[in-house]
Design a protein that fits this description.
This protein has about 525 residues and is α+β, with helices and mostly antiparallel strands. About 15% of the residues lie in helices and about 35% in strands. It has nine helices and 28 strands. Strands 11, 12, 13, 14, 15, 16, 17, 18 and 19 form a nine-stranded mixed sheet that branches. It has a five-stranded antiparallel sheet with strand order 1-27-26-25-24. The protein is globular and about 65 Å long. The model is unreliable at about 1-15, about 30-45, about 385-390 and about 445-475 (pLDDT under 50).
């Protein structure tokens, strides 16, 4: 599966330009596979991203990426340097990502016995720094769960990797909940969570068993009987968030020896059908790790009321709502609703006129911009064959929740007849290939540096002044980040364009980011020429 949009990062890298996207999106799909070096994947990957290692069986393996700025989807390729017999095939997945690191899995299988007699290896890929350090690929020791040595604990999306500021990384597996009755006979039950953790300093798996307590204003009993981790989210360089999209968040501070885990419920009720939670909900770290946001796509009736409807006028109508995790004055944690967009507002946009009016799915919040959410837009026939609209494409679209605008879209090409989409996995690893510090994500903005140490347990609002600083800093950071992504824009042109856009009411900035990347420099030069002509007259 790939996007038909051209890969600007790959083209720029081939031309020798210092441009890679500040963040990218991967998908986890069994259909991405390569058989051998003699029969490699057809996708063109970037030679600067290549890293090599050996599997647990001693076979040489090579990893590389094709990196594209969202809404395009990036892709992983894993190949064995030595050829394979025809009956064998390699399946690979992007399991988790954080900072410059990506956790990968690879299994070599017999096509006639796909679910038997195969070995699964896990690797940590680390990006190069664009200058001296080359990309690296490191094999992890297996994490065995049972006496039969079945590696069952490092599940995709239920395993997380956390890149710490000291250059180390931590890998954590899914939670296993234990409900325990108190010994005092009070009948009140408590919960303990068990998980496995690996530190890069010793590369040994250790089992953690910690109690769980609430960390919100409601101090009532927690029902963990059906807890199921849907995501493991790294936050800043300190915290793991285990997310049950029906219930809430359990988080741990790995920067110190935690004695407990803490729980915060979601701001919404559980879904009626748990099978739909991936389609409609997500929790993401954004603003470079300085914020945690929850997003939900909920159906609504034509009268405006929430809920599924059979009304022909609103079968596909929906509302997008976002919340940000905040701290209260009492030191607890809670959710603040900060964005609501209705489908009618999106469908009325001129930029949306060629896209199907269907319910958006698989939301993911941009790592860079807290206001931008990316969605999968299914094919009209992949969800409902009674719908008749022109075209049968699937799309990825980007929506700015604050401006209520469509800021990007890309069609998806898949081998499947009716591709149904899948969860997006955001990553900043692409930005570390840039040699220019301003275009990389390893130097956080000022508001992120101020809050990074407190994001896992957000502190109470200290003053109205700090809120005002954050409010003002965010738009200017967006303008600077957008200019830094433009290939071949000189320092002088960037400074002059920044001066024009920062003094505007953001109309020109919104126009800039709505353009394809290869047209943005021409637009900036046009703005500078307009400013020069004004001064002459």
């Amino acid at each position: 599966m790939e996007t038909s949009q051209s890969c600007n990062a790959l083209a720029a890298a081939a031309a020798g330009d210092d441009y890679y996207p500040r963040w990218v999106m991967f998908v986890d799909n069994d259909r991405h596979r390569c058989e051998s070096q003699a029969n490699p994947c057809p996708s063109s990957t970037d030679a600067k991203t290549v890293a090599q290692a050996r599997t647990s069986n001693g076979l040489p393996v090579r990893a590389s990426f094709r990196l594209a700025a969202p809404p395009a989807v990036s892709q992983l390729t894993l190949n064995l340097d030595d050829g394979l017999p025809d009956r064998l095939v390699i399946y690979h997945h992007v399991v988790a990502a954080h900072g410059d690191s990506v956790l990968l899995s690879m299994s070599v299988r017999n096509m006639q016995q796909q679910y038997r007699n195969h070995t699964t290896d896990h690797f940590v890929y680390r990006s190069g720094d664009g200058t001296d350090r080359l990309p690296s690929l490191s094999l992890l020791p297996p994490c065995y769960l049972d006496e039969k040595n079945h590696d069952r604990t490092m599940k995709r999306r239920r395993t997380g990797i956390l890149r710490r500021g000291d250059g180390e990384f931590v890998v954590a597996t899914d939670l296993k909940m234990n409900i325990i009755g108190c010994e005092d006979g009070s009948g009140v039950k408590r919960a303990e969570a068990e998980f496995h953790q690996l530190l890069s300093s010793d590369l040994e798996w250790k089992t953690k068993l910690l109690p769980v307590r609430r960390h919100d204003a409601n101090k009532g009993e927690i029902c963990f009987g059906r807890w199921e981790s849907d995501r493991v989210i790294p936050v800043a360089d300190r915290f793991f968030y285990w997310v049950d999209l029906c219930r809430g968040i359990i988080f741990s501070d790995v920067s110190e020896e935690s004695t407990e885990l803490r729980f915060v419920p979601l701001p919404v009720e559980p879904t009626r059908d748990p099978r739909d939670k991936d389609l409609t909900r997500n929790l993401c770290a954004t603003d470079g790790g300085a914020a945690v946001k929850f997003v939900e796509v909920s159906p609504r009736c034509c009268c405006g009321d929430p809920g599924v409807t059979t009304c022909a006028a609103s079968r596909q109508a929906f509302t997008i709502t976002t919340w940000t995790l905040r701290s209260t004055l009492g030191g607890d944690m809670g959710w603040e609703k900060d964005g609501v967009v209705d489908s009618s507002e999106i469908w009325a946009l001129d930029a949306y006129r060629c896209l199907p009016r269907l319910r958006m799915e698989y939301p993911v919040v941009s790592i860079d911009d807290t206001n931008v959410v990316v969605f999968f837009l299914p094919s009209p026939y992949s969800r409902d064959r009674d719908i008749r609209v022109s075209g049968d494409k699937t799309w990825v679209v980007m929506i700015n929740m604050r401006t209520k605008s469509l800021i990007g879209s890309a069609p998806i090409i898949s081998d499947e007849q009716h591709y149904r989409g899948e969860v997006f996995l955001p990553s900043q690893a692409s930005s570390y290939f840039n040699t220019s510090p301003g275009s990389r994500n390893d130097t956080p903005p000022a508001n992120e540096r101020r809050r990074r140490k407190d994001i896992g347990v957000p502190r109470a609002v200290a003053s109205v002044i700090e809120l005002a600083i954050d409010y003002v800093a965010s738009p200017y950071h967006e303008i600077l980040a957008a200019l830094q992504e433009i290939p071949r824009l000189t320092r002088d042109e960037m400074l002059r364009a920044y001066g024009v856009l920062a003094c505007d009411d953001r109309r020109r900035y919104r126009t800039l980011v709505a353009l394809p990347m290869d047209m943005r420099k021409d637009y900036c030069c046009m703005l500078l020429d307009m400013g020069t002509n004004k001064q002459m007259h």
